[in-house]
Every structure is written in C-alpha cells, then in structure tokens.
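stuck on whats below:

***
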Amino acid sequence: MLPKTRAADALPEAEDCYAFMSTTSIREIGERVGIWQMQGDQEGFLLRLDDGRRGDHVDLVLLNPMLAFSAERAARLNGRANAAPRPIAAVRVGALGSQVVMLARMGYAPWALIDPDILLPHNLARHALTGFAVGHAKSDSLAYLITDMLGDQQAAQSLPVDVLHPGARDEELIAALSNASTILDMSASVAVARCLAERQDSKARRISIFLNPSATDLVMLAEDTERRLTLDLLELQYYRLVRHDDRLEHHLHVDGQPRRVGHSCRDISVTLPEDLVALHAANGSRTLRRILESPAARITIWQTDPVTGAVTVIDAEPQEVVLQQLGGWILCIDRSLETQLEELRGARLPNETGGVLLGTIDCERKRIIVVDLIPSPPDSVEWPTVYIRGCRDLRQLVGQCEARTAGWLTYVGEWHSHPAGVPARPSAADRQVLTWLRDERSIDGFPAIMAIVGDQGCAWYLDEA
C-alpha cells in the first residue's frame, strides 16, 4: 500500500495498492537476495547478509489487485464524497421498497429491514429478489444480499415483524427505530404511516414513498429534520394538492382488475409492469438521496405517462402547521388555510361571508386536521351583520372533493367571517348553529367545528356531545 499526498507535510489523501507475483521459488529468492544459501533441501542462513545480491534476477509479474466491495468503496464508486454511516429503517420491502433499498450499492448503510411478508412466486414479477428467496421472509433475504454484497454483517438487519402488531418482538422493533436516523415508510398503508408519525420512541425523521392505485404516479412525503411537519399532516396537504391540481384529477382513481395468483381468498395481486416500478424506484431513490442532505419537508409527485414514460414532477411547498388543543381534541391547521380564510373575508367586506371546512377527523387519535375549504355558496345571504350559508351545489362540491381524494378530504365543519371591529367570538346565533351542528355530527361520533374570521385572524371553536 503506497500512500499519496499533495505536499510533503500533508496527511495521505488516498492509497495505491500494488501487488506482484514471482515465478521464482521462495528458496531461490532467498539465495538471490543474500539471506541464505541452499545446502540440498535445507536453507543455511548466512552469518552476514550478502549486500551484493539485490535480487536482480528475480522475475516479477505485476498483478491487478481488486479491493473487496464495501460501503465506503461503494460510495466512492458512486461519487458520494460523504460516506459516513447513515442508519435507515425501511418499513416494508415489497416491489418498490426492495428496489429502493438497493441504495446499499451506493454505500447507504446500515439498514434495518422491517417486513413480515414471505416472498411468493408471483412477487418475482417485480421484486428485487430472485427465485432463491421464494418461501423466505423478504427482509431476511434482502439483508443477506446486502451483507454479502458489502462484506459486512452489520450492513443490514432483518426484522420480519408487523409494525402495527410486533408482538413479542416489540423491543427489537423499538431498538431498530430508535437507532435509525431515517425511517423510510414504503408500506403504502395510511395506518402504518400514521403509526410511525405518532411513535415517540425514535427521533428519526420519517419519509413515506408510495405508488398511487394505478401505479402511474409516485408520491414522496418527507418530514423536516425537526419533525414539525409529521407524515400525517403532510398527508392531508398532499390531498389538498390532489384536489386543486388538474393534472391530478385521476391520480387516486383505481384502474384495472386484480389478478388471482392462488386458491385462497387473499391470493390477489395487481397487474403492474416491472419497468414502471423500476422507473419509480429510480426517481424515488435519486430524490431520496437529496432529501437526506436537506433539512426541509417536502411533498413531491412524479406523474408518468404510461405510454411514453415521460415524467412530470409536481411539487407542493409544505405549509407550517399550528396545533391547538380544543377540549379533548387536537386541531391541526396550516398557514395556507388561515391565509385563504382571511383573504376571502377581506374580499367580501363590509359584508360577512362563510362556507364549509374540509379535512379529516381521526377519532382514534382525537385529531381534527383541516386543510381546505369551500367558499360561500351562491345562494348564501351576505349582509354587513348577518351571514346565512346557502347550499346550492354544496353537496355536489363536497362529493367531488371526496371522489378526487378517495374520501380522505370531506366535510368537517363551518366557517364564517365577522365584520370589521367585531371580535371573532361566537354570537348568540353562532352558538345556536354550533349546538345544532353538534347534535347532527354527534350521530357519527364527530364533534362540531366552527371557524370565525375577524380582524385579528381566525378563532376556532369545538362542541361535542
């Protein structure tokens, strides 16, 4: 090994490795360099080395040494200057996930691969694993591939458990998540994403990557490193993007029919071309690399033309979220919504105005997430001191929102404005509306939500049975 430096007093920046092979035997080499003298089959060491013998007649052949593959070498070969260990916990390593974790070929390691599923024959149509792994846990086989490839048994750890129901292996799951710098959710499960967003046993940043139902689009939701914008909050902002961007009109529509791969009632797969999965995995992996170097939150959709393969990138700027405790519930709203409410009020002054709020209510976690609205219907009464919300086309508009977002954005409450100089506090009429709304919503177990917009911004009110 020959170290290389740019200056005589500098530390080595790299090392060159040279290897040689001699066609001459060791015994002959010892004689030719003056170390010993052969007496039959025995070496007789000289009392004094013969400095006149320099081994000039020893034949050497220059070899081409190949260093073993490693995470550090993988990073250098892929042009990554910073190859510091970056522990990543990957939740679910199916068709998309198995190809994304091949970032190990670029030196990203170590991995904790968390997936209880077994590789079945039909999975080979799109999975990174091959036939040797059929019948084995996907996480086990991928961990074997990564550790074998990088020559390091610590490069990947397999944990074949369900994050929602880890059972007796819960402590192992906690350790894997708490040791990670990034938790990469590739489950395509809302329940898993929300569970990961809620977990307090890890400070790791969460990033979610999934395909839309027809697999034409890839979605990435990335939390900021401080985790002020968690996955569940980004998810609802993503649905707002789907509602308003006409390019995403059919983004959440389901195309095609499932295909039966066995005789069990659960032996159902989908028709999904491998080249499309590989394209999505490449786009996701490349962007993931950049996100890991940036502290900011991100919402990105890659929309792919299924015929030409052309990719359109659709980005949304994540908005700061405000959390507010209302009774036993946590209200989650973002700055974009509040700005929109204030602008609609200002546009209608001196009259009052209003409309309905869109979002989702998570009864299990006692969270109300409001991200969008519908402005005042055309048959509403808007006077300087009175607002009576109309209903023309309102049911249709809410239905369109639900259809476009697969039901994730729906009606959650009411909003209206107060005129200049009037505080954003409920009037007697507002309290009557809130009580009526509580009685109506409590049938489904939901609270009544009302936003009032005044000179000082938005005030939020909740009433529940």
User: Anything to note?
Assistant: Residues 216 and 304 are 5 Å apart (CA to CA). The first helix runs from residue 26 to 32. DSSP finds eleven helices and 25 strands in the chain. The first strand starts at residue 2 and ends at 4.
